[in-house]
Amino acid sequence: MFRDEHKLNHALSWFERALKLNDGDANLEIAKICLEKGDQTKAVHYLQQALSTNPLLILEESQDEAKRILRKLENPGQCPLPPVKPNRLLSGKGGRTRPSQGIDITD
Which of 58, 53, 84 lies closest to 71, judged by CA? Predict the structure, then answer.
């Protein structure tokens, strides 16, 4: 919802709150926002955090998605993986988000 309304900072603050409450999935969502804002360095940091999160605190699907995005960032021309879907809570009606720096993380 906030992503569709271009309120990325507001969405980011909510995910940062969730992260403080040990919501490991928030790492992935923060990484997506960082990519949308064009900050690939921060995105990689949060993706790595998602991958190192205790499996009890993050969905397996979120870790898989973090792996796919990270591989795509590390090998932009060589990664034949399908793009990942944005979080429906952020994208409102399930619409597409804008890719950042030529890296499309949506389908």
Answer: 84
pLDDT per residue as tens digits for the range 55-90? 999 999 999 999 999 999 988 776 544 454 555 445
CA 54 to chain centre: 18
Q: How far apart are CA 54 and CA 6, in angstroms?
A: 31
Q: Which residues pair with 38 in a beta bridge?
A: none
Domain extents in the chain:
8-91
Q: What are phi and psi of 20, to 5 degrees?
A: -65, -25
pTM over 0.90? The answer is no
**Using one digit for the tens of pLDDT, what is the confidence trace for 31-42?**
999 999 999 999
CA distances from 98 to 6, 24, 48, 87 (A): 10, 24, 22, 13
Taking a C-beta distance cutoff of 8 angstroms, is the pair 15, 29 a contact? yes
